[in-house]
Amino acid sequence: MRFENPVPLSEIAQLIDARLVGNTTAAATGINEIHQVEKGDLVFVDHPKYYEAAIQSAASFIIINAEREVPEEKALLIVDEPFEAYLKIVDTFRPFRPSMELHASTVTLGTNTVVMPNVYLGNHVTIGAHCIIYPNVTIMDHCTIGDHVIIQSGTVIGSDAFYYNKKTNRELHYKKMTSCGTVEIESGVEIGAGCTIDRGVTGVTRIGAGTKMDNLVHIGHDTLVGRNCLFAGQVGIAGASVIEDEVILWGQVGVSKTLTIGKGAVVNAQSGVPSSLDGGRAYFGTPVGPAKEKMKELVWIKRIPQIWEKLNKS
User: Considering the entire predicted model, what is its pTM?
Assistant: First the structure.
């Protein structure tokens, strides 16, 4: 999430009751997760396992619950509960502002765009030119839609990320991590009926230009989909994955989180993808493997009863 204007660290420290160490005169330009941080960003870390990764990341300022050495140009904001500090920053700089109108007053629509009845458009939604938004579509706050985009009925764009902070202080429970990111749909995208595209937790979920989606497709938070991809019905992609250009995912393919599927890969129907895949190849199975090898495996599996029978007779 980008702040509207750079915010002095002293102001943020006062907000979250933090002790400042390091470059205390700087200003933060935003807050982000570790895998999306840029120079000028805040990031939070609350587990020793990830302290060094956060300090050495692109983030300039680290909200942390222990004092550590920090590069000269960076700063630590030391608090007891970094996660609670994150929530307070988000609630302050992007507070929840419900819009009770079908189209919020801050919506921007391009020329020759058609928005049909019962479409909900939240705060600061931008839709480009020559789009068709069919009935009962929901586009939540701060989402951006490019030109020549078609969105079929019942689709929801910009719903909260499925993202929780695991707490075990007394008993196991999950605390919601407030989503302050966005969704960007680039030009020429077509999205079927009943699809769901979650916003980034702090960054962006992006659908690249020319990509086409069938009905009932789910795209998780912070996923980056490339250009001219093709997703068939009931494809599900978990959070923070990268789907490169021209990837085809056939029906009911499930893709795990934080992985990459390379350019031009094809994953056949009902396959499960637990880890990254190289581009330019066809895949099949659960877990996926090269399609030709998996087909040979199926042939041999069918022969097992015959082989077993022959072994028992010998």
Answer: 0.92
Q: Could you report the per-residue pLDDT of 210-246, keeping only the tens digit for each?
A: 999 999 999 999 999 999 999 999 999 999 999 999 9
Q: How far is Cα 262 from Cα 273, in angstroms, rounded to an integer?
A: 12
204-207, strands of its sheet edge to edge? 108-109, 126-127, 144-145, 182-185, 204-207, 224-225, 242-243, 260-261
Reduce the DSSP state of residue 83 to 3 states and report it: helix
Class of domain 108-291: mainly beta
Q: For the domain 2-93, what is the CATH code?
A: 3.40.1390.10
Q: Which of 100, 93, 11, 90 is nearest to 44 (CA)?
A: 90
Active site positions, annotated:
221
Q: Per-residue pLDDT tens for 117-151?
A: 999 999 999 999 999 999 999 999 999 999 999 99
